[in-house]
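Hi support team,

I submitted a single chain yesterday and got back a structure, but I'm not sure I'm reading the token output correctly. Could someone confirm the output below corresponds to the sequence I sent? I've pasted both exactly as they appear in my results page.

Thanks,
R.
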Amino acid sequence: MGVLAIIARLVIAIVCSAAIGFERETAQKAAGLRTHTLVGVGSAIFSIVSIIGFDGPDQARIAAQIVTGIGFLGAGAIFRDGQFVRGLTTAAGLWTVAAIGMAAGSGSYMLALLATIAVLAVLYGLRGIDEFVARRTRRVQDRIEVVMEDARNLSHLLKFVGRIDSSAAQMNFKRTPDGGGALEIAVDPDRTAMLCEMIAAHKGVKGVQPLSPLYWTRPKETDG
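Hi R., thanks for writing in. Yes, this is the structure output for that exact sequence:
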């Protein structure tokens, strides 16, 4: 393999992976332009090394290790935030960028370019549809604020609320200087009054009040 062929494969890997990383960067995700570009280039380098330095089944063995390695990296981009799971789309993007880098590194330029176009079409084209479906399917909920004496009792209180209303979700929590906390919960509108009464009687709760939509915090969003 000549130097020009190696340069061409690396350039294709950089361009394709950077295009996908740019979308993640504009969406303000933790793994953005540089991360995706490095994953794509790294996969291309491994693919080139496997072609230059090894023959026969060893080439496929290195490619398989790329798939395994990117799985660990993608898992690190996924984390749980309350009842929400974030990073799934970013992890899938890293996994796909690695495949595109492998295609570029192995000399399949057309495959790498077409795959990049397809991924960008999914990320940009389906974003509006995803948001539309989310708005149509999102259940209308009320919000209540619970003032606690001790912030350390948060998990116990959330379990108590969950037993009464399984659809209840923590939206925000702020610690207060006195060691207490203010908890904002989204609840089923049909159970708001009952929840307020039962939570108010719970040990360690200073007060409970329904919140006007004007005071709602911005809802947490899953990675899309």
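A quick pointer for reading it: The radius of gyration is 24 Å. Let us know if anything else looks off.

Best,
Support desk
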